[in-house]
Design a protein that fits this description.
The strands form two sheets. A three-stranded antiparallel beta sheet has the order 1-2-3, with no helix packed on it. Strands 4-5 form a two-stranded antiparallel sheet. With 87 residues, it is mainly β. Helices cover 0% and strands 33% of the residues. A hairpin with a 2-residue loop joins strand 2 and strand 3.
């Protein structure tokens, strides 16, 4: 594995947003180029103002992330520690 110099690295992310005639966000698209692979995510928002039903997972149904390998821009140590979030 190639060694990388320490320090911050830029990972440009581009975004487009669409609004309706009332100024509400109705669509968003983000795009990033990670190590030569372009990733685009588009979210369409509908039923604005309507109630949302959520199911909260119980702790036994989750898996905590304590380590992850690699950094999206391709300059990665063998392992990278990540903070443990709330499940």
């Amino acid at each position: 594995m190639a060694e990388c110099s320490p320090g911050p690295r830029d990972l440009p992310v581009f975004a487009d947003a669409w609004g309706d005639d009332r100024g509400r966000l109705v669509r968003a698209r983000t795009s990033v180029n990670m190590s030569g692979t372009r990733v685009t995510v588009t979210a369409a928002l509908s039923d604005i103002g309507e109630p949302v039903r959520l199911t909260v997972l119980q702790a036994p149904d989750t898996v905590p992330v304590t380590e992850a390998g690699g950094i999206p821009n391709g300059c990665a140590p063998a392992r990278m520690a990540v903070g443990q979030g709330r499940g």
